[in-house]
């Protein structure tokens, strides 16, 4: 069974970059017709799709965050990452990595990692 585990710094200062990593076990991030996504939920708000990466490495970014966001992956380690630049307190949220099917429906979630942006 595929499992995902997020890791990150927890606390970040405004204007800095936050880097998050998702480690996948039980399946490969290069498996055909799978997408690997980052999603966040800010306090009191709904889920927000940040970006996703297709199995072949193609990427999609939410236009509202695209100028500050990058995805990466390390296929030997079966990990994919999110870099979010120039963070503000508005970026404080629980960040989740997830696997989706070919219709971008999430079928596996990580437990999430909290990111707090504060000076």
Q: Which characteristics define this entry?
A:
119 residues, mainly beta, 4-stranded antiparallel beta sheet, 11 strands
Give a short summary of the structure.
With 119 residues, this protein is mostly beta strands. The protein is built from no helices and 11 strands. It starts with a strand and ends with a strand.
Q: Overview of this structure, please?
A:
This protein is mostly beta strands. 0% of the residues lie in helices and 52% in strands. Strands 2, 4, 5, 6, 9, 10 and 11 form a 7-stranded mixed β-sheet that branches. Strand 5 and strand 6 form a beta hairpin. The chain starts with a strand and ends with a strand.
Instruction: Classify the beta-strand content into a percent band.
Output: over 45%
Residue share in helix: under 10%
The total count of strands amounts to 11
Report the uncertain regions.
Answer: none
Mean of all residue-level pLDDT scores: 95
* Structure annotation, total helices: 0
Choose one word for the global shape. Answer: globular
């Amino acid at each position: 069974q595929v499992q995902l585990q997020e890791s990150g710094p927890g606390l970040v200062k405004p204007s800095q970059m936050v880097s998050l990593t998702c480690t996948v076990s039980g399946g490969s991030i290069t498996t055909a017709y799978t997408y690997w996504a980052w999603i966040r939920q800010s306090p009191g708000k709904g889920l927000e799709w940040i970006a996703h990466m297709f199995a072949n490495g193609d990427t999609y970014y939410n236009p509202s965050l695209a100028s500050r966001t990058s995805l990466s992956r390390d296929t030997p380690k079966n990990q994919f990452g999110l870099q979010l630049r120039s963070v503000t307190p508005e970026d404080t949220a629980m960040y989740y990595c997830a696997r989706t099917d070919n219709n971008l429906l999430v079928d596996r979630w990580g437990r999430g990692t909290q990111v707090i942006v504060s000076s």
